[in-house]
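Predict the holo structure. Ligand: zinc ion.
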Amino acid sequence: MYRSLVFLMGLLGLLAACGTSPSPPSPSSALKVVTTVSPITSIVESIGGNRVALEGIVPEGVNSHTFSPSPSVARVLAEADLIVLNGLFLEEPSLELAQTNKKAETVILALGDQTIDSDEWKFDFSFPSSQGRPNPHLWPNPMLALRYAELVQEQLTALDPSNAEYYAANLEAFRMRIEELDRGIAASVATVPVQHRKLLTYHDSWAYFADRYGMEVVGAVQPSGFSQPSSREVARLIDQIRDLGLPAVFGSEVFPSDVLEQIAKESGAIFIDGLRDDDLPGSLGEPRHSYLGLMLANMETMIAALGGNTSALAYFDVGPVFEGASNAVYPQ
Ligand SMILES: [Zn+2]
């Protein structure tokens, strides 16, 4: 009797300790899910909530296209029950490390490859068809991000049916947010003068977004291979901006922007730094440090610079769709 009382007290103490911790550890039985870039980690977190043990491997602010994981990541991948990547050739070194280190039964879910067929691949400025690798940035199109979430929900449910209802409820909550975001973006784009619904960016990550909202990507500064553009290419871009009368050109959080700054200065456009494709805004634990926060921040930056407004998104909630504290690991 006494022994079981001591055990019970110990258990209560443990529970109390968990309750005061800002990031409660997942139960040890929780599915171990490993992801790559932060927007994908956030989408997986929206569905898995705090019932999966989730860890991203690509630190924010690094070039995800050339990121090569350190050998220590092999251990994280070896313990994973599910590995979720964008695919479409975005994370080749991470995929290779996953394939050689994962448990035999661990599923690798490449979201982009399952979201569009090869006849829907987009080739463009930084991702020319001559290289055979499509533009992999599907997630800036919220409807494709929703498809990612659906694939994650299907996979989590298959691997962990005891939490099926929880994952399904989170997907429905996420779907409602995405639909609201989609309507808000469409309404915001509609406030931009038609002739200004054009994007010239440093990093070429808006192809699938533009397609959804009737915008046109007229150029991207970054050549394939992520080197600096040639001076001839810079001169051509300056002419193009002048010819089209573009009000703004956009830099990226992750890539250096001195060339774009020069292009803006010589073409008369304003230079807007800070579009993001995989570096979430805010800091860890803030609601806007999320996929939804990423898209809202991008819209506030992009739409205002092109002469429109985002009042349709003024009350958009970018916080988590699930109850309770996050336990996801986002490497910084
Ligand atoms: Zn990118």
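Residues 1-23 have pLDDT under 50 and may be disordered. The chain has two domains: 26-182, 192-313.
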